[in-house]
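Notebook, student rotation project (T.W.).
Task set for the rotation: take a protein with a known small-molecule partner, predict the structure of the complex, and write up what can be learned from the model alone. Partner molecule chosen: zinc ion. Sequence and SMILES entered below by T.W., checked by me.
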Amino acid sequence: MTKAFDVPPLARPVVDTHCHMDVSYDDEQILPDVGQALANARKVNVTKVIQVGCDVASSKWAAETAEKFPDVFATVALHPNAAAHDPDLVNSLEQIDLLAALPQVRGLGETGLDYYRTDKEKAQAQHISFRAHIDMAIKHNKPVIIHDRDAHDDVIDTLLNYQSPETVVFHCYSGDEVMAKICADNGWYMSFAGTITFKNAKNLHEAIKVVPNDLLLVETDSPFLTPTPYRGQPNTSAHVALTVREISRLRGQSEEEICELVFSNAARVFGPF
Ligand SMILES: [Zn+2]
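Predicted structure of the complex:
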């Protein structure tokens, strides 16, 4: 049975810095009702969202949607798992580069490395694509949004030893406290998703405590990673309210303070809004 969404509005406005409104939770192809999703989010004081592209088609959709809706901003990229299977990677990267120049496109992502779905030894295309996205982020002076799944060391190595743009965001931060300190030392943003509300996410519960105020972001990665107590149902931008409240509890900071921090940090990374 689905549990009705019943979450009081946040004390202050926040931004969902990572969502996929075009992705269906159960693989049914339905056209997203963006207006409805934004209205639902606004009810709990989630006032802006970043729609993230994962391939050329979804990046185009993100850019088009951001053009139509003033509270939506886009990022564009080939997801590492898309890059891994792209028959014409060079051409796809060129198309991402063209989209990246648009004013409503505020970042290059999600890109990075995913050794969960692709063996580390077979990840050559992911490395090529990740580096190309870093180059584009530098060229367009926009942030890079990183997908890092089971690839912490190689992602950090690329950023430190290849090159890195001025602004780096670890989307759905999944490292531990030690890695959070490395990110903090390098000025990399850490964006926390609904996973922080999971009881067994001890690494995240420790990591969140060492994230500097000015590097903290929140996101949903919707329709996935639905926070407790709505696990098993599709995630939406409105659900980020639960993540904000859990972060407030774990860090011992008021809800108002966390809202203000994540809004001003999001504006610094993805703005002007
Ligand atoms: Zn994502």
